[in-house]
């Protein structure tokens, strides 16, 4: 006997809701979860660097611009490097060749040709009783021009040459303004070099206005032999500027600074000094004695006498330069 089962409509609706997906709730702006982002995968880029003759150049520096990631080419001029993004720029540089920059983009193989850079080779260098181009220069000669000299803000030419000429050692003994004679310099540590300014031997170059110097050349070893026995310690050749055609030009420059000692001795007080001197005397195996007695300590302990820091009292904190 068949019976019909009647189910109320509300019961059927409740059953459907129980088996359906849970409701979704909207999150507020403060409840949003950031989407996980994957770092870009590193890509290998390889290639060959050649010269204008089509031969591979070994030892070329390949650097990802703005980073410390880099490599060099092998004996055949080939390289391989990893980049982080298609927007990375590879910088190719080598001595005697013009620097070149290449945006990677979608490339995985980059082959470039470096052009020779002859600008530095055509530079004229002042040598003994004449001039010579760098490309034909064979002697031990180094030079610096006026643009490189004035990059250091100092009114003493010797101090401005520090670190600019290989083999030249500069010793600064005083920072007092107007003291031109205390500073010393030598070539490779051998005595005082011969100084020649516009062909005339001079005692020093400290009194020359740095803005009046066109170039300075250092002659070392056999390159200085043309000046005879006076050039045994090397030669410093100074060439001053000459007038040139063109419009009149007025330049103004001002500099003011101060120098501070990196470190000074830290003196001890009288009580510490007396104590150390007594310890030294007691360790004398020949005649151990007490050099300072209690009567010597008493005035300082009672405040009747004060220790004086003469470094702080006499010396200035800074020395002006202008």
TrEMBL record:
GO terms for molecular function: siderophore uptake transmembrane transporter activity. Coiled coil: none annotated. It comes from the Bacteria. GO terms for biological process: siderophore transmembrane transport. It holds the Pfam family CarbopepD_reg_2. It comes from Dyadobacter jiangsuensis. Residues 29-51 are annotated as: Disordered. Its main location: membrane. Residues 135-235 form the TonB-dependent receptor plug domain. Residues 1-26 form the signal peptide. GO terms for cellular component: cell outer membrane. Residues 34-43 have a biased composition (Low complexity). Keywords: Cell outer membrane, Membrane, Signal, Transmembrane, Transmembrane beta strand, Transport. It is found in: Cell outer membrane. InterPro entries: CarboxyPept-like_regulatory (IPR008969), Plug_dom (IPR012910), Plug_dom_sf (IPR037066), TonB-dep_OMP_SusC/RagA_CS (IPR023997), TonB-dep_rcpt-like (IPR039426). This is TonB-linked SusC/RagA family outer membrane protein. It is a multi-pass membrane protein. Gene3D superfamilies: Carboxypeptidase-like, regulatory domain, TonB-dependent receptor, plug domain. Belongs to the TonB-dependent receptor family.
